[in-house]
Design goal:
Elements lengths: L4 E2 H14 L1 H4 L4 H13 L3 H6 L4 E2 L1 H15 L4 H5 L1 E4 L2 E4 L12 H10 L5 E6 L5 H9 L3 E7 L2 H13 L5 E5 L11 E6 L21 H4 L7 H9 L4 E10 L5 H10 L3 E7 L5 E7 L4
Length: 288
């Protein structure tokens, strides 16, 4: 395609296409997405798009931008198209090998910091994905020794690259399922955002999740399977008085609280995200 368009014209075309595809693609902010993709395609700050709408773009950039718009209209996450996602105070690289970090997962970081105020500590992040939670904790508690595990070697490539780019050296990344790589290690805090979407949940067929790795989304028909595995295995890897902190689905809090109580955890409680949904549940292991 050899088309010359102004910046303003490109924005209008992109936003119109995304608005038309909103029902099928899950796009909720057509204008913002169009701006983000155009700034990415032109490699300029978004502010420049607003200050120079009359500027003409190179036809190659136009073609690239329109391709990105079509991919977004098909439901591909914005983060996969740009290669980046903001989480906590960090800019993280993401690829289709990892879940896109969600704003609600920042609650996991908030609760982890609240549960352990000590400057030092041994912390495990199970199912780390791109490393979002582990790296956010490392940024806030630089003297914590954090071990992050993931079953996906491809995900760990992304996580390790994020750690290297952010110059984080206090996170060790290990490949394996949940506790398997941890041997006999014990921690002051274990956090996890495991797969918790049931395989029969219609959300998996929706545009919002269609492009993300199934391994990181669903444990199968039993949506609580991974959460249950972590709860039952955690006591062997928690020091006395240590905490287990889990992210889960909006309706899974009651069942997860029951699991924690049955496993001997104390002070079991759930916390709500900004949308008002129960999103994290925590419990304390053993006696202090």
């Amino acid at each position: 395609m050899n088309v010359s368009m102004s910046v303003g014209g490109m924005l209008a075309t992109g936003a119109q296409r995304l608005r038309a595809a909103a029902t099928d693609s899950g796009v909720t902010s057509a204008e913002l997405d169009a701006q983000v993709l155009l700034a990415h395609a032109l490699a300029v700050p978004r502010a420049r798009l607003r200050s120079h709408p009359e500027a003409a773009a190179d036809p190659r950039h136009v073609a690239h931008y329109l391709e990105l718009i079509e991919r977004r209209a098909a439901g591909e996450p914005l983060a996969y198209l740009t290669g980046w996602r903001e989480f906590w105070s960090l800019t993280l690289a993401v690829t289709p090998a990892v879940l896109v970090p969600r704003p609600e997962t920042e609650l996991l970081v908030e609760r982890a910091l609240a549960l352990r105020a000590a400057a030092e500590g041994r912390v495990a992040d199970l199912g780390t994905g791109c490393g979002a939670v582990a790296l956010a904790l490392a940024a806030e508690r630089p003297r914590w020794q954090i071990t992050a595990t993931d079953l996906s070697g491809e995900a760990l490539v992304v996580a390790r690259a994020n750690a290297a780019r952010l110059a984080v050296t206090t996170v060790e990344f290990l490949e394996g399922s949940w506790f398997a790589p941890l041997a006999g290690a014990a921690f002051d805090l274990i956090v996890s955002n495991p797969p918790y979407v049931g395989a029969d949940d219609p959300a998996l067929a929706g545009a919002a999740l269609a492009h993300e790795p199934r391994l990181a989304l669903t444990p199968g028909v039993d949506a609580l399977s991974c959460l249950r595995t972590i709860v039952r295995g955690a006591p062997r890897h928690l020091a006395a008085g240590a905490w287990l902190l889990l992210e889960h689905g909006a309706l899974q809090g009651p069942a997860l609280r029951d699991e924690l109580v049955l496993a001997g955890f104390r002070y079991v409680r759930s916390h709500r995200d900004l949308a008002g949904h129960e999103r994290t549940t925590e419990g304390q292991h053993g006696q202090i």
